[in-house]
Amino acid sequence: MFKWFDQNGDGWITQDDIEKMVKLFTALADNADHKNKSAMSKGFMNWWNLLLEARENKASEKIGNQEFIRIMDAVVIAPKNFEIAVGYIVDGLLGALDRDGNGSLSQGEYVGMYNALGIPPTTSAEAFRRLDRDSNGEISRAEFHQALFEYYLSADPNAPGNWLLGPMDVLK
Ligand SMILES: [Ca+2]
Ligand SMILES: [Ca+2]
Ligand SMILES: [Ca+2]
């Protein structure tokens, strides 16, 4: 994940990298979809501010790999922080992908994420099946959130949420 955030690959996360992540994610939304673009943008900026506030070396505004992992474990996964960082991004992402506006993701809408992020869609059908826990053919907001929490917090390698990691791995 650090490698993904470090968009220019210089071994540090800086505000430039976060702004590139924002561009990558907001490009998923329709041009006129300011609501979801702004949710994703706020989420990444809140995340960046959490990293900045918790960093040890206040003299420079950059975060290294070890410190990133430490702050993720100690600060970002606290429910209150997770919600305003990752939660905002997830809500904006779901809203942007939900083209028919019914509040959940069909398989076609879900695959849109793979295409837009440049992830080969080979695992998307399997991932969709696993994330759609009640097998009703749609990924609900609750199922999407649960997947994200498991992706970050679950120690169980078989947790369905880890299927989100599959596509993310491709980006490393
Ligand atoms: Ca960087
Ligand atoms: Ca939908
Ligand atoms: Ca479902």
TrEMBL record:
SMART domains: EFh. It holds the Pfam family EF-hand_8. InterPro entries: EF-hand-dom_pair (IPR011992), EF_Hand_1_Ca_BS (IPR018247), EF_hand_dom (IPR002048). Residues 1-28, 119-154 form the EF-hand domain. GO terms for molecular function: calcium ion binding. It comes from the Bacteria. This is Calcium binding protein. It comes from Hyalangium minutum.
